[in-house]
Amino acid sequence: QVQLVESGGGLVQGGGSLRLSCAASGRTFSSYVMGWFRQAPGKEREFVASINWSGGSTYYADSVKGRFTISRDNAKNTVYLQMNSLKPGDTAVYYCAAKESRFANYYDLPSDYDYWGQGTQVTVSS
User: Fold this and answer.
1) For residue 16, pLDDT beyond 90
2) Residue 26 pLDDT
3) What is the tens place of the pLDDT at every residue in 53-101?
4) pLDDT at 104
5) Which residues have a Cβ under 8 Å from the Cβ of 97 and sit 6 or more positions away?
6) Cα Rg for the chain, rounded, in angstroms?
7) Among 33, 99, 95, 38, residue whose Cα is nearest residue 64
8) Which pLDDT score, from 0 to 100, does residue 27 have?
């Protein structure tokens, strides 16, 4: 079992930055592929970024590539999402997710993941 708690969301002006954090419980955090997803009102949950167990492999949605960076600190059981050059279209609830695997480089479908956080709201004003 893994419990995930996101933090760092808030209101920011367009062009600004935010860093989301996702703290995980459990001693096997380093065995998990971690992902970030987002869901805007009336829309399906969409993939944002994923990182493999070691942090050596990352994968991004085209919509955030070059603006967002996913990273992890296995000593702190935490995964991060640094979001720069934010746009109003990035407004959504952001969720982190976990899937146990030391083989996969990433997962990009919600159905791939076994554990989810409660989400944190990110609002970007124009």
Assistant:
1) yes
2) 78
3) 999 999 999 999 999 999 999 999 999 999 999 999 999 999 999 999 9
4) 94
5) 4, 34, 35, 36, 37, 110, 113, 115, 116, 117
6) 13
7) 38
8) 72
Residues comprising the chain, all counted: 126
User: DSSP readout, the chain?
Assistant: ---EEEE--EEEETT--EEEEEEE-SS-GGGEEEEEEEE-TTS--EEEEEE-TTSS-EEE-TTTTTTEEEEEETTTTEEEEEE-S--GGG-EEEEEEEEE-SS-S---SGGG-SEE---EEEEEE-
**In the prediction, which pLDDT does 8 show?**
98
Structure tokens at 75: 């000593």
Percentage of the chain lying above the pLDDT 70 cut? 100
Give the phi and the psi of residue 77 in degrees, each rounded to 5. Answer: 55, 45
Q: Cβ–Cβ contacts within 10 Å for residue 56, how many? A: 8
Determine the residue type at 100. E
CA 51 → CA 30, 42, 84, 125, distances in Å? 11, 27, 18, 28
Phi, psi of 70 (to 5 degrees): -100, 140
